[in-house]
Hints:
Layout: H1 17-28, E1 41-45, H2 51-60, E2 64-67, E3 76-77, H3 79-87, E4 102-106, H4 110-114, H5 129-132, E5 134-135, H6 146-151, H7 164-172, H8 174-177, H9 192-197, H10 203-212, H11 214-219, H12 223-237, H13 241-255, H14 260-269, H15 277-282, H16 299-316, H17 321-335, H18 342-345, H19 350-365, H20 374-397, H21 402-433, E6 451-455, H22 461-472, E7 476-484, H23 491-494, H24 527-536, E8 540-541, E9 557-560, H25 562-565, H26 567-574, H27 579-598, E10 603-607, E11 613-614, E12 629-632, E13 637-639, E14 649-652, E15 655-661, E16 675-676, H28 682-685, E17 686-694, E18 701-709, E19 712-719, E20 725-729, E21 744-745, E22 751-755, E23 765-771, E24 777-784
Parallel strand pairs: 1-4, 1-5, 2-3, 2-4, 6-9, 6-10, 8-9
Antiparallel strand pairs: 7-17, 10-17, 11-16, 12-13, 13-15, 14-15, 18-19, 19-22, 20-21, 20-23, 23-24
Helix pairs in contact: 10-14, 13-14, 16-17, 16-21, 17-19, 19-20, 19-21, 20-21, 20-22, 22-27
Amino acid sequence: MISGTQRGSVRLQSGTLLDSVEVSLQAALRTPEGTAEPVAVLWTDADGQWKPLIAGLRTTLPHLFALGPYNPSTRTGPVIWLKCIVARSLPDMAPPTGTTPILYLPGVSRQDLRAAEDCPAALQPLVELQYRGRVWHQSNGRDWSVEAFLVSKEGLGLDIAQDLRTREAMVRALPLLAETPIDSLRGRRLEADDFDKLAVSDPVRDLLRWMSNPELFEKGLDAGRWQAFRSICRSEFGLDPDEAGASAAGGALATGGTRWDDVWQRFSEAPRLYPGIPMLLREPADGQGKLAFDPSRRPEANDEAEERLRRELEQVVGLPHRDACERILALETEHGLRREWVWAQLGESSFATALEPLTRLASLAKVFVGGASVESMAEAYAAAGWQCDRAALDALASTKADSESAVIAKVVRALYEPWLDASARLFQDLVARRGGDLRALATGLAPEKETCLVFADGLRFDVGGLLKEKLESRGLLVRLSHRIAPLPTVTATAKPLVSPACEAVDASSPDDDFTPVLGENKQRVSAAVLRQEILRRGVAILEPDEAGSPARSEAGAWVEVGRLDTLDTLGHKLQARLVQQIESHAERIVERVAALLEAGWPKVRIVTDHGWLLLPGGLPKVELPTSLVATKWARCAAVRGDSAPAVPTYVWHWNTFTRIACPPGIACFRAGNEYAHGGVSLQECVVPDIIVERAGGGTAATIASIQWRGMRCRVSVRTNNPAVRVDLRLNWKQPATSIVASIKEVGAEGETSLAVSDDAHEGAAAMVVVLDPAGNVLDKRTTSVGQVS
C-alpha cells in the first residue's frame, strides 16, 4: 500500500518491475511546496501497454482502480464510478484512510485530458482531476510507455536495443518481465532473444503461477504445452496437476522437502506475485495433519500467534513500567522471528511487525535521560536520548488498521509516558536552577554567504535524525548538531531567533502572545515583516519552486519548506495520527535540499523553531486559573502582572519582565491534547541544526554568460574549481541527450567553447549545464542553439 510513510525517495535499483512501478507511482504523490495533497494519481496509457501488469498490481495496491466496464471484483468501472471513488462516496470501495487512489486509464493519453473542451465527452469528468491530483508521466510531460520506463534514467535505466524486433519481444514478455528481478537484467545490452528467453519454461515459476490461478494458467497454454507442463511436474515435483489438483500442491508446498523447498524459496521472495497461494495453504492437505507442517508455512499458525500476541500486548498495559518493558523484550524473543516469515511480507503479521519498534522503545525507556546541567542533559538527549522518541513514533506508524493501532497506541503510552515525564521534570528542575532563563543558551544565527538556510517549522530532533539518514543515503555529507530553542517554544518567539534578521528584533519588547517587535520601527514580527527584514539585510528569499544561486546573493538565502511548515498545524489537527505524515514531510525536505545543492549552493543549513510532545491517549491536564494569565495556550501562558500561579514560571526570551507559565512534566493546560508544544521539555527545547554539503568538497559554479557564434557556444563560468565541465543537453538531467562533440573543462580562465556536432539542432531549445568532477549538475541555463548573441 502506498502512503506517505511507507516509501522514501524513488530508488528503482532492485526488486521486480512491479515493485519499481509502485515506487514510481509513489513519487507522483509528492506534493510541491505550497499546494494541497493530490486527490488522485492518474495513470494514462493510450496504447494499453501496461494492461498485463494491472492484475498483479491489484494485489499490492488496494487503492488501484481502472477505467473499464463495471466490475467491482476487479475494481474496474466507468468514469462516473471513478469520480465516486475519488470523492469516497462509495463506502464499500473507498480507498484506505491516508492513501490516495490511483486511477489506471487504458486507452486515454495525457494529451486527451489536457485538451479540455476537445477531450472526448465520456472522459471530460476526469479533466479536472489533473489539477486536483497528479498525472504519472515522464519529466518531459509524455506518458510512461513500457519502453520509456525500462530505459529511462528516471525509470530503470536498462540498456535495451532499439530495433523493432526487440520492442515487440519486450512487450510480448511483459507479464514474465514483471516477475523477473531487475538486477538480473543489468550490466548488459538486452535484445529480442533476451526477452524471448523469459518465456522458456521456468518450472518453479510455472508451478507457482498454476497454483495461484489454475484456470487462468491453463487457458494460456495449448494442449502440447499443458502436457509438457504435466510431465515436468511429475518428474521434478512428484505431482500430476490433472490428477492431484492445486490443493494437493499446496499441501506439498507446506510440507516441503526435495524440490518443494526450492518452490517455497521462490514463493517467499515475491509472495504478492502469487495471490492465490496463501488460500491454498489455508486448506487442509489430503491425508496429512497439521503437525507435519513447518509452522512458518502455515498461515493459521501465524494467525494464532498474532491473536496470542494481541492478548499479551493488551496485558502489558496494566503492568508497572519496568515490568512492562521487560515483558515486551520477552515477547520479542518469542515472536520476533515471525517477521522473517512470508506472512509478514503479505501484511498478516502486524503485531509482530510493531514489536520491533516496541522492543527498541522498551529497551530505551528503561533508562531516563539524565545530566547535571541543562547543557549536559541536552547533549545526552542529542547523542542518544532522541532515539526513544523515534522508536515511539515508529511503533505508532507501524500499523494501519484502527483495531491494531488502538492496541499499539496503548502499549506505546505505557512504555513511553513515564520516561517522557521523568525526563521532562528533571530538565525543568535544571532550567529552574538557572532562574528559568535559557536566553544565554538560545542564541541566534548570522547569515553566511554561499549558505542557504532552510527553515522547517516544528522539526523535532528525532525527525532531524530521520532527515540525516535520508540525506546520507544520497551520498551527501551531513552534520547533525543541536540548538536550544527560546522560551516559550512557539513559532512567534522562536522563528525570528533562527532567521537572518534576529539582530533586528527588540530584546525588550513586551507582548502577551509571545510575538516580539523590530527594534527600529516597533513593528510586530509577523511572517511578512520578517521576510521584509531578511531581504533588507541582503539575504535572498527563495520561493517554493526556486533554487537561486550563491553567486547572485550577497549574504546567502532563506527558504521555508512550506509543507513541513504546516506540520505544526497538522499536528494540532491530526494529533497522534501525525505520525503517518512525518516520513513524507521529511522526504519533501530532502528533495528541497538536494535541489538546492544541485543548483550550486555549497552548503545548506536546516534550522527550526521548536519541537513538540506527542503522546497517544492525550497529555495529562493541570489547572491554571484564567484570572492569573493574560493568554493561555496548551503548554504555555503569559502570567498577568504579579500573579503567582501554582506552576513553574520562566523568563520570556525577548523580555525578562514577562513571565511564562508552563505546566510541570508533560502536562497541558487544556484537555484532549495528544500533540502540543510551547513548554519546557527536551523534545520541545533541544532542536536539530543540520548542515548538508556535497560529498567531496563544496564545489560551486554559476553560469555568467552564454554567447553563440554559428554552431559554437562560448560559456563563461564563475567557479571555485577549474575542473568543472560544461555540457549542452536537450534534457539537462540526462547525459545521453548531449548534443556537443565533447564536454569541456572551464580551466583557470573560467571559459570554454562547445561545438554542436549536428546542424539539425539549430534553433532547438537546449540547456547549458555545469558539472562538478563527479558529474553532478551545479548550474543550468536555457539557450537556443545558434541564437544570435
